[in-house]
Amino acid sequence: KTGEGKTLVAIFPAYLNALAERGVHVITVNNYLAKRDAEWNEPIFNFHGLEVACVDNYEPNSEGRRKAYRKDITYGTNNEFGFDYLRDNMVIEKEQLVQREHHYTIIDEVDSILIDEARTPLIISGPVPNDNKSDKYEEMKPRMASLVDA
After folding, report:
1. pLDDT computed for residue 43 by the predictor
2. Domain boundary assignment for the chain
3. 79 burial level (CB within 10 Å; 0-12, 13-18, 19+)
4. CB of 57 within 8 A of CB of 77?
5. How would CATH label the architecture of 6-149?
6. pLDDT tens digit string along 16-35?
7. Edge to edge, what strands does the sheet with 24-28 contain?
8. Are 101 and 108 in contact, with CB atoms under 8 Å apart?
9. DSSP string of 74-124?
10. Each residue of 1-17: pLDDT tens digit?
11. pLDDT at position 131 over 80
12. Looking at residue 128, what is its pLDDT?
């Protein structure tokens, strides 16, 4: 049911898991709630020496978003976390990663996110850069074939 204080109760496990210094992701159903919950709960966490950020406040692949993920507790929506995960799996250099490792996640309105939103795929598409990487593939293909035949 709504309005029973589940969002407030999430403060306690977020705090306890953040003490491990591995980061906690708090996932909400929309941008408004992510920003609101981060703003409302930040004074409580700050009082206890923890830093809070909301990834929805920053552009994808930005330094601001990268810093938000380095905070003790990071708020955001399932879509923002999901697309950041997909983008991170497309990078070549480790320095380009936005998210930190995944250790703890608290999902507010879990039924909405895991059941209702499960039907909505997260898809990233765009033009493929023409940087002659296919030339490297063609160069290496005969060498690999000789290794397989050996």
Report:
1. 96
2. 6-149
3. middle
4. no
5. 3-Layer(aba) Sandwich (3.40)
6. 999 999 999 999 989 999 99
7. 52-54, 73-77, 24-28, 104-107
8. no
9. EEEEHHHHHHHHHHHTT-SSGGG--S----EEEETTHHIIIIIGGGS----
10. 566 677 788 899 999 99
11. no
12. 64
